[in-house]
Structure to design on (424 residues):
């Protein structure tokens, strides 16, 4: 109890800064509007009764949990599902699921805010995607006798070391969790090492392998590629971060020296950076830019195609020849992003040296010769040029990636089987 009191006082002190960052308007970032009240527990009631409550903090978690949501609704069509996100960009992603779910914003981690949400929603089960753990939230939910399950749970070695140095905090957190469904055995052991009991920890695999790619994705990709140019070699830089875009543009300038017809599709991770990335490409690197949302037709003279939309990654990947996965060339700030999407659409990929958030997936793809590792922008340019000059190798790497994805599927059903007891 003392821990929660101290924690709550600290949270009260820092929450204005956290909320300022959350609500601050940035270009490309959807506004919260009147729904900001939901962060304080003033939550509208939902249509269904006793829903499953899934918390997916932002865009990445929302995309990751989508296959599970679709499978749950297929097997339990009358089961109501409410998904909470903290961010408005996450809400925008969940909105694409239409009538499958209802969306609410996650209450701030004050007990009274969480209690307001519970009173309005009355969930039968809380599913947390990956590791979004909040002390007051877990304690308040547990007090209501609502089971708590962490799904797609992952814990990097780096995070585990931090948690181990604060077991006075992590043990009360994990005590309130009923089940932890981990991606890999390494993740399971790390959760045990930081205080979870073995009985609560299960390895179900990664839901992210269970990608369902609609045939329309490839149909639309074919259409887009015909607009971009069938014979142009196309590099996509996916989920890039601040400090990384300039490295990609620098590599691309080198690529252009070897093939002046090359095209770069760049997909900044955060929509509020779309304008900055466009300005950088034009002013700092003298590259001609076409934005996906531009009304005028795509010009063959364009060198950069700026993907300023959300939720179209599979389409864009399938329209490209080679992928560079962002979040991996800026030291240890991000720790990489998921390489399964380019693998699932049969495309070779390159990642930088920092991928600690996806070690198992990345190393599995490396061992399968589905991806390559670069150390810097110079090496990135060399590897892309080599792949552009070797279509056969592109095809082999792409097929290797697809095999890895197919061989590891089934986590969605294993997850559903693990939570079935909580659904009745």
């Amino acid at each position: 109890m003392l821990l929660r009191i101290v924690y709550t006082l600290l949270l009260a002190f820092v929450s204005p800064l956290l909320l300022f960052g959350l609500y601050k308007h940035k270009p490309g970032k959807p506004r919260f509007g009147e729904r900001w009240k939901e962060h304080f527990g003033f939550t509208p009631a939902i249509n269904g009764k006793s829903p499953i409550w899934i918390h997916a903090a932002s865009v990445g978690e929302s995309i990751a949990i989508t296959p599970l949501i679709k499978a749950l609704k297929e097997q339990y069509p009358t089961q109501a599902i409410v998904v909470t996100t903290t961010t408005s960009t996450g809400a925008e992603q969940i909105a694409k699921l239409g009538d499958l779910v209802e969306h609410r914003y996650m209450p701030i981690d004050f007990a009274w805010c969480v209690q307001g949400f519970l009173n309005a929603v009355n969930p039968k089960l809380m599913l947390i995607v990956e590791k979004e753990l909040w002390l007051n939230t877990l304690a308040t939910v547990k007090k209501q006798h609502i089971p708590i399950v962490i799904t797609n749970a992952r814990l990097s070695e780096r995070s585990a070391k931090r948690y181990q140095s604060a077991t006075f905090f992590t043990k009360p957190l994990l005590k309130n969790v009923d089940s932890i469904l981990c991606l890999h055995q390494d993740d399971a052991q790390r959760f045990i090492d930081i205080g979870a009991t073995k009985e609560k920890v299960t390895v179900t695999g990664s839901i992210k392998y269970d990608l369902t790619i609609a045939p329309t994705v490839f149909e639309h990709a074919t259409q887009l590629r015909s607009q971009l140019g069938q014979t142009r070699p196309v590099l996509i830089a996916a989920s890039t971060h601040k400090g990384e875009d300039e490295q990609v543009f620098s590599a691309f300038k080198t690529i252009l020296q070897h093939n002046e017809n090359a095209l770069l599709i760049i997909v900044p991770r955060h929509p509020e950076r779309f304008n900055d990335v466009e300005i950088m490409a034009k002013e700092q690197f003298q590259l001609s830019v076409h934005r996906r949302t531009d009304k005028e037709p795509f010009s063959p003279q364009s060198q950069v195609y700026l993907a300023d939309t959300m939720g179209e990654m599979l389409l864009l990947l399938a329209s490209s020849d080679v992928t560079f996965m962002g979040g991996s060339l800026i030291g240890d700030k991000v720790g990489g992003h998921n390489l399964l999407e380019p693998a699932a659409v049969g495309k070779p990929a390159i990642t930088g040296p920092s991928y600690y958030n996806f070690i198992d997936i990345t190393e599995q793809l490396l061992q399968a010769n589905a991806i390559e590792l670069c150390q810097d922008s110079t090496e990135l340019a060399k590897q892309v040029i080599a792949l552009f000059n070797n279509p056969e190798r592109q095809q082999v790497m792409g097929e290797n990636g697809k095999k890895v994805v197919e061989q590891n599927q089934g986590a969605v059903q294993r997850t559903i089987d693990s939570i079935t007891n909580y659904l009745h």
User: Anything to note?
Assistant: The first helix runs from residue 2 to 23. The CA atoms of residues 124 and 373 lie 44 Å apart. The chain has two domains: 21-210+409-423, 215-407.
